[in-house]
Amino acid sequence: MVVFCLGPFLSLAFASLRPGGAPFGAPGEYSFDQYTAVFETRPFARVLLRSFVVASLTTVAAVALAASAAFVLAKMELRGRRALLALSLGVSMFPPIAIASPLFLVIRALGWRDTVQGLVVPYTTFALPLALWILTSFFREIPDDLYRAARIDGCSPFGAFRRVVLPVAAPGIATSAILVFIFAWNELLFALTFTSAPEARTVPAAIALFAAEHREPWGEIAAASTVATLPLVAITLLFQRRIVRGLTAGAIKG
Amino acid sequence: MARPRWQPSDRLHARAMVTPAIVVLAVVALYPILAAVWLSLQRAILIFRERRFIGADNYNALIHDDRFWAAAGHTLYFTVVAVALELTLGLAFAYILHRAIRARGLLTAMVLVPWAIPTVVAAKTWQWLYDADVGLVARALPLQDVDLLGMPGWAMHAAIVVDVWKSTPFVALLLYAGLSTIPEDLYRAAAIDGARGFTTFTKITLPNLRSTLVVTALLRSLDAFRVFDAVYVLTEGGPANTTETLSIYAYKTLMRSGDFGYGSTLAVATFIALALLAAVMLTAFGRQALR
Amino acid sequence: MRRRGLFAFFASLAAPSLGCGRGGPSRSDSDRTIVFKHQPLWGDPEPFRAMLSRFEAKTGYAVVTEALPSSSDAAHQYFLTSLEGGDASFDVLVADVVWVPEFARAGWIRDLSEVFPSATIRGDFVEGAANGVIVDDRTFAVPWYADVGLLYRRTDLVPDAPRTYDDLAREALAVKERGAVEYGYVWQGRQYEGLVCNVFEVIWGHGGAAFENGRLQLDVPEARDALRTMRSFIERGVSPRSVTAMAEEESRRPFQAGRAAFMRNWPYALVEAARDDSPIRGKVAVSSLPTRDGTPGHGTLGGYQLAVNAAVTPARFDGAVALVEHLTSLESNISMAVLYGRNPPRRAAYASDELRSRAPHVAAVEEAITGARPRPVTPYYALLADTLQSELSAAVSGIRTPEEALQRAQRASDRIMGMGAR
Fold first, then answer.
1. Which domain holds residue A127?
2. Which of A52, A97, A194 is the best residue to mutate to test the B interface, defined by the most B CB atoms within 10 Å of its own CB?
3. Of the four, A177, B59, C174, C328, which is 20 to 30 A from C15 by CA?
4. pTM of the full predicted structure?
5. A203 in contact with B at a CB cutoff of 8 Å?
């Protein structure tokens, strides 16, 4: 199991230190040349920054929208609840390709191609159901008494949400934030469709289009892939429990 | 559940708090799908500014389009085989996690690694492993003159392996969570009755895991049916379109050929096919399994 | 809506700080600055920068270069979206041979006939290259450098170039059976644009026209014979089964390693074969591709052309044209050959002593470049390419018979070009 899970990526990470991406066992020196090449001959630093900005903004937007709506779903009564649940469940099932063509036309008309917001807006929409789901299940676990006490103390529903519920639900917020960030960091289809300039791409789109004129530059692909993946692996290992909880909350409690 | 008492201003607050989410979902997801249906009724060649209403002509062409049916077949094959393998392998992993008391945290972390890796990177990793010149997998296999991603028959299965690698962790975690909810007492009682390993598996584990299995299968199937990233990076649908899925066919028609009318028809068809798959699975496994 | 407004605001803050706003920095406002959008040249960028500096010194314009995605499909997709949106952030662009009619029809590139009359283009440039840039007798681009399909062979194993497909197959099998090589003949059979180039060469070699009277000629005896020949190479072991997975590099690597006797490839492989560490150094020669009757075959024309963005302002038009003139001049043709091994599309370049002495491998393919043919010159090529790639791939990999694949491709291409309802 360990070899199956770790083997493929570790061998690629090793290859990133070898000329031409040769696997271990083959002769050759170990060096960071491929990494230098990636950052010097391609706009990879900008691509990384771009991905970071897009994923962060998506996270903030999706979690903010989801938290306030999830609170209502979990703790308050409202006639539109079912409609919202149905809508978000429906959207989570959408194949992204189904809306790519009209979204492309809208984004083109707005002049948002190759911009940050041109990706953040669709990403937020697709991440929203996931965040909503996780947060609703977290909010449900917060005792009603806590909310009630806050209301009796004179807080408005929104005030109670902001001052009492949110701090208690911080772990849930963090969990959904991590999952949304990972989703936005990894997305490819919209990134390919709504960006075209090399410096406006996100990491997955850049790596997918990493070809040189005639050859597959394995060494550079390996280096760029390693750089793009290490932060995620670090986040995953650090927040392992939260992620497992978030993933299973999304599914098992449904 | 006792809820706080309603006050007149509460409804306003509640409404204000859900409205932004509803607006975003409606504007960025619901409106485009309707717009896609509208586009699918037109001949729309972006580059030559051709755009006119042609009614159901695109759908008529779709029915006679061999490439569409082939792509639908590939997508279904990919989904069924990949999800079946993921459930089997995922169950095995879940067992290992369940049994491993001491190293469980470490093992869970390792299992999560493929899940966290961007799909594009996962696909590039495997493309490299399959490469006939430098690939470790290609060299390890006792095959002569075979290019795993370049030959019909091989390529689809090579792509399935990538999806299985990437998604089994997710399946394993869900099933592991499901396993943890089965009371130990049941196993103890079975042991007293003299039940053996395989019998306990079929008589206790599987029935109790049923709803988790169904939910997992549903989630994974809907996801696998939408597959784009992995196959696009690995083969772009080749060789001879033998790995072309619905998403890839629609994407190529839209963005490579610039045919927005027929491309939208393919996209809408993908959406309908996915909805059908969900409906079929829900009917087949019964709603009560999902509670 | 308030929240969306908020992050749109943050996003707009982030955008300029990343330098990614649409129109780019204000330098485009200056009429003395020309923005050139091109794919990175393979090799050291310095000599090319020096070529541009000479232009700047001569004319007083400043030139800014911007990179395009290096894969041809991705670059095409870039232009599809940016030119269609009337993007005026660049003035001069490179276009693949098969894009020029499409871009011209879409109105994205300027008619340059005033400056480069079609008669002059036909006189100065090799026939195939000229045909690729002239649409309805109007010039829409100027050839920059040319590529052509060539037959490579190992001279230590096969002294004389085979003239016919039968000769090629026989010699490839003979060398392979002697155990001298693993593969007889390698070419590009993967599902991508290179395969289309390979197939057209064989169709021409069987006397087919491929494109006539505005219609793609696929469901014809010559094309069927061509695909049968290609398929039989695989079935008889002349070519390995994995040839259906090979692009340029996958075929060049075994050839370079001495594991193949023959190869079809572009001229760049000659530069690679002549490197100091090359195992086949001095043992390689190129010739025209074989044909059925033994006359020299025609290679598919590749390479890039320079065009002027239609959205460019009149004030910058002169500068853009001057840059195209400079980069496609005889002098620049020779520099590109000497510095980057790129084949000049200008006939006169091959007579130059400098080219003959400093880039002999470029001079060696003059005959092939002169005889190179473009793929079908039609605005619908991008729409056709996808169908062609998949059907031809199905035929060479044996999934469909040549008859069936060609019929399907014919039907699809007639539908696309006939512009009937889909």
1. 31-252
2. A97
3. A177
4. 0.84
5. yes
